[in-house]
Amino acid sequence: MSAHPAPFSVGLDRLDEFDTIIDVRSPAEFAEDHIPGAINCPVLDNEERIRVGTLYKQVSPFEARKVGAALVSRNIARHIETHFLSKPKGWKPLIYCWRGGQRSGSMTVVLGQIGWQARRLDGGYKAFRQRVLDELEALPEALRFNILCGPTGSAKTALLDALAAEGAQVLDLEGLACHRGSVLGGAPDGVQPGQKAFETRLWAALRGFDPARPVWAESESRRVGRLHVPGGLFERLRDGDCTLVQAPLAARVEHLLERYTDLIADPAAFNAKLERLVGQHGHERVQGWQAMVAAGAWRQLAEELVSQHYDPAYRRGGEGLYRRLGDARALPLATLDAASLAVAARALAAPVG
Fold it and tell me: Which pLDDT score, from 0 to 100, does residue 234 have?
């Protein structure tokens, strides 16, 4: 009779019961997406997984299992020595792979035989991914969204941060997507998560919200950089109550200069981004903007980008997707400094009644 504690596998509803969630898939699989909070302790690395898979297809499953078992055993031993030796007897790890099969089963058996309360996730990442997709459709239906609207430079993202500081519930789409929402708005490191990882981040945020309280978000298009907001969530956002931030051009320019310091610090990268606007504005105008970059005429450049690029786009219907924009409550702000935004956030977050 096996000495391993029963039950061997548990379902997704018990994710929160474990001290550590261990993803034993390859680093490439883990990088694409993983359960929030999981650590990656692969039992087969990227090259080993390809090697075993090739043997399975080209030689035989039996030969693949022999080679795979040797590799898995060595890797599990290494993880025990480098990650787990300090864990107490009462440690409870949850282990998963792609489908809850041999990779996670192998580590679960070994850790269980040591005496830890190890369990394998039934269905593995595949089951988790399906749960994410299902709940991304269901969770938004129970939530009420308040949408911050306004043209580029209106400090909507900074106002979201101020709302979060006041204890409001905030869905920061740009933060989750690692993108600032415009053609010039890539994250400073230029790296966005993959679509699956973005959806997992959204799922994790949505499941943490209290349906009895509103959730604040800012107006975005369906796409945030190269990622897209799932359909069910986006439709709920489109139905949200709108607050229209109104600020003078000078305040918006000042805010943009503060927000895009990474572009100002790298003129070559800024000019490369401006090159993408040639199709809309022509070579002559874009070259004029690039000359301002070379001259360090940042305020003049920001004013022209706002007045000649962003505001016309906004007037053409940049927020027309939001069904209640016509009934938006106005939020006039003379300045967009941190103190002013904190005062505005405090008023917005205050309970009604």
Answer: 97
- Distance, CA of 68 to CA of 52 (rounded, Å): 6
* Alpha-helical regions (H) of the chain: 27-32, 46-58, 61-79, 102-114, 124-138, 156-165, 173-177, 195-207, 231-238, 249-259, 261-264, 267-274, 278-295, 298-304, 311-313, 338-349
Could you give the strand order of the β-sheet that contains 169-170, starting from the edge strand earlier in sequence?
A: 169-170, 215-218, 145-149, 241-246, 329-332
- Beta-carbon contacts of residue 140 (< 8 Å; ≥ 6 apart): 206, 232, 233, 235, 236, 237
| Residue closest to 34 by CA, chosen among 119, 148, 132, 105 | 132
Q: What is the sign, positive or negative, of the torsion defined by CA atoms of 168, 171, 174, 178?
A: positive
Per-residue confidence (pLDDT) for residue 4, from 0 to 100? 44
pLDDT in tens, 221-264: 899 989 999 999 999 999 999 999 999 999 999 999 998 888 88
Concerning whether 149 is annotated as a catalytic residue, the answer is no
The answer to whether residue 334 is domain-embedded is yes
In a domain, 4, yes or no: no
The strand pairing partners of 148, in sequence order, are 218, 243
CA 13, 14, 15, 17 torsion-angle sign: positive
Q: Encode pLDDT of 182-203 as tens digits.
A: 666 655 556 899 999 999 999 9
Q: Among 133, 163, 189, which residue terminates a domain?
A: 133
Question: Which among 97, 149, 178, 242 is annotated as catalytic?
Answer: 97
- CATH code of the domain in which 106 resides: 3.40.250.10
Domain, as residue range, for 192: 143-349
**Per-position DSSP letters for 294-328, written without gaps between them:** HHT-HHHHHHHIIIIIIHHHIIIIITTT-TTGGGP
- The CATH number of whichever domain residue 199 belongs to comes to 3.40.50
Tokens encoding 288: 């004029």
Query: Could you say which residues of the chain have pLDDT below 50?
Result: 1-6
Domain end position, chosen among 133, 167, 184? 133
Q: What is the pLDDT of residue 2?
A: 41
pLDDT at res. 353: 52
Domain contains 3: no
